[in-house]
Fold this sequence. Notes:
about 500 residues; Leucine Aminopeptidase, subunit E, domain 1; Aminopeptidase; 2 domains; nine-stranded mixed sheet; six-stranded mixed sheet; about 35% helix
Amino acid sequence: MKVKQTTQDLEKYKGDMLVYFVHQQNKKVPACDNKLVQDTMKLAFKAGDFSGREGEILLFYPSGKGKLQAKRILVVGLVMAEETAAINGVAAADVWRENYRKAGGRVSETALKTKAEKILIVVPEPFILEKQDEVECLTEGLILGAYQFKKYKKTKEEDDPGASIAEIQIFTEKAEKNILQGLNRGRIAALSACAARDMANEPGNVWTPASFAEFGRKLARTYKLNCKVLSKTDMLRLKMGGILGVNSGSAQPPKMVILEYKTANRNPTLLLVGKGLTFDSGGISLKPPKGMEEMKFDMCGGAAVLGLMQAVGEEKPKGINVVAVVPATENLPGPSALKPGDIITIYGGKTVEVLNTDAEGRLILADALAYGIKQYKPRAVIDLATLTGAVVIGLGHHRTGLLSNNDELARQVMAAGDRSGEPLWRLPLGPEYSKQIKSTVADIKNIGNRSAGTITAAAFLQEFVGDTPWAHLDIAGTAYNFTEKSYVPNKAPSGIGVRTLLELIRNWK
């Protein structure tokens, strides 16, 4: 898909769809500066079919004899202009960023249904946001909303639109540099999230630990990053008992993929760790068959981290070093698999009693966190993982669980999530929770009791970060089946985390 800025004459545009955005007016017809669009809206308003409310669309076909030559005209409703207050603690500006994102997604949704391949978007006049930010968020919504994964679809179904959007032009009256910057920011963020969606959509027999390694090396070649891949031999030498134990039932060898973006030694380093469980059967503590196919999504944390590194490679942020680590393996009940009651030793020497082999993500993350912190001495570390079913029970599919040992880092991450339309909810940590994972035969055990499962999982990870400012994002409820939006696929990978991390880096303090 090509996305570009244009100042061409709207009346001469002969593409598949010309798009306008209008604000809902209180009991009045929405306003548009094009007479044909305005007259058509009046008729739809009188018929009760269109009032410009959020998510409403008006699609019509001009005769071609008037002043618009496009095949279709689409009018998309925005929230009422008077509705400028913060919502649920989210600042008004961030609410409107999401409004424009959803509006962009609505355009792509309609374009796919009508098989419109070439689209021209008329950016509305600035309201709450600067035009650069409007363009950024519209572009994000347009690209994310146009996402499709059809790699393995060999036969066409009747309800399949069978088309994709080939070109999106963003119209502004002047070709201003800041508008182009907004477009590029939106494009980079959206395409990086789409890369994470692609990884997650791949089946477990295709996307293996070796695939993570291959993708990491490809990013390194493309963007001149440093890539290092630890093999099973390396892990044995380093005594990474977490990832080795989880991998012991699989025929696929484990990998630990490390990507480095470096600016200068004097600059702070941000360490990002993403869980890369390419398939999780539960191991010996086998999961029930129903829904197990979704366990190919257990690598969405790793996908998010590598998707983020694609964006970092393109934007090349200044004043910060970024290191991404993805511990990647399968968790299967092979003849050598880890057993409940086994004791393993994590990198650095801490011992863990494994009571449930389905609590495996924390084991591979422990090795990655301990190793990454020792090797790179980061200013802060953030991990992302589809870690617990408990977070879905607590927060549903609407918010990512956030746990942290540092209030300022937690605040920055939550602010980045609000700006990205990927909200988080902070849960507590404390010694009362850490007590639940104390073991009588090892330093700690990998599960507590049934209560506070998301928190005790984070308490386990906290054992391996020391005093380093750290935030844990449990994305089990948001990595797939995330809140249905026009730019998020229904019952499919969302690409969650990529844009939040990118916003964090863009505004790093």
